[in-house]
Amino acid sequence: MPKWLRKTLITLITVCTFGLVTPPSYLYIDEVKADKSSKEGYIRPHDPHPIVVQALEAEQEDGQEETVYDAETFVHFAMEQAERQSMEKFGSKIAPVIEDEFKDAILPEIERVLADLVIQWPEEQFRHLQISEKPAGGYGEKIFHVYNQETGQDLLRFHVRRDHPPQDGYWFNFHYHTWEDQFQKHYPLGNIYWDVNTPPKWLN
Known about the structure:
The chain has 3 helices and 7 strands. It is an alpha+beta fold. The strands form 2 sheets. Strands 3-4-5-6-7 form a 5-stranded antiparallel β-sheet, covered by helices on one side. Strand 4 and strand 5 (154-163) form a beta hairpin.
């Protein structure tokens, strides 16, 4: 049916019945198709695998942007922070000596622990997980903590302790604590040997 005739019929039916009768739906078919295709945008309706882009940035009501994490994104971010803050803690004297062994032996263990954490943490809560920023200097053990920014509660604490067994040199004992037992137990990540001489203070 020609488009002009269709429009004429719709108008006549509406005017003659004072709007009490709705024109039959088949008179609107082309308009419905056109409206549907415009809403579908550039994705063709017959394309069996349309590309879906998932944005990591969600716009809040106040117009600011907020990062939305999934498990993989959080672990990747946390691992970058773990390496950066560990090197900062080791300082210019310790880092060159143990850096390679730390990356080969300790970092994979940290990644395993973080991956285990996000498995049990609700996905909608990832945006609240944060990494502390300041490793402890001197003889302090803290490397970094994972905490809930919303509550301020620590979830994991990654530490390194200096051990000096009798008749042996100095070792760096990497371990972590968890909120599940109120941070009482030491969970080992690995040990790195230093030397028979006392290691420098952290951050030096």
